[in-house]
Recover the amino acids of this structure.
């Protein structure tokens, strides 16, 4: 068990992938420029890493314990929300005038992750993976609760 996992909890890796970023990363959207995506943490924001030409990804570790009904309950520095409503925030920032500011964020919900997926990720050393689309219907950065591409979380081996 990793040092970060307390008795009764499991440590599991999570990979969040934000796909289909426009090549200009939303340059000019709403008068903004230099638009960037970050994973929101309890202490600030982590920049994404390039994943191909039009995607970013984040790799983080979370802990999971079972609640009284046997459902997974998630925690960690990147996990947001109340019990049974946990999620990740991907936040967008940009330059507007001469100021950098956050202006949108998307929620990636954990509610559909199963105990079986957690167990598979722990056993295989793989990661729980969520893929989301970067662009909202208005052409700007995706925001609010976003659907997962492929419709579900997956367990995948860690990239080498």
């Amino acid at each position: 068990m990793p040092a970060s996992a307390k008795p009764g909890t499991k440590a599991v890796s999570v990979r969040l992938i934000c796909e289909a970023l426009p090549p200009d990363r939303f340059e000019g959207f709403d008068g903004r420029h230099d638009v960037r995506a970050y994973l929101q943490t309890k202490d600030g924001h982590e920049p994404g890493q390039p994943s191909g030409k039009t995607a970013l990804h984040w790799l983080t570790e979370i802990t999971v314990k079972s609640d009284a009904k046997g459902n997974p309950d998630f925690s960690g520095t990147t996990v947001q929300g109340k019990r049974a409503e946990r999620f990740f925030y991907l936040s967008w920032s940009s330059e507007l005038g001469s100021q950098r500011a956050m202006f949108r964020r998307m929620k990636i919900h954990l509610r559909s992750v199963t105990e079986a997926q957690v167990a598979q990720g722990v056993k295989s050393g793989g990661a729980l993976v969520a893929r989301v689309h970067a662009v909202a219907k208005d052409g700007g950065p995706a925001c609010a609760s976003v659907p997962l591409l492929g419709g579900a979380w997956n367990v995948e081996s860690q990239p080498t």
Notes: Helices lie at 115-124. The longest helix spans residues 115-124. Residues 10-156 form one domain. The chain has one domain: 10-156.
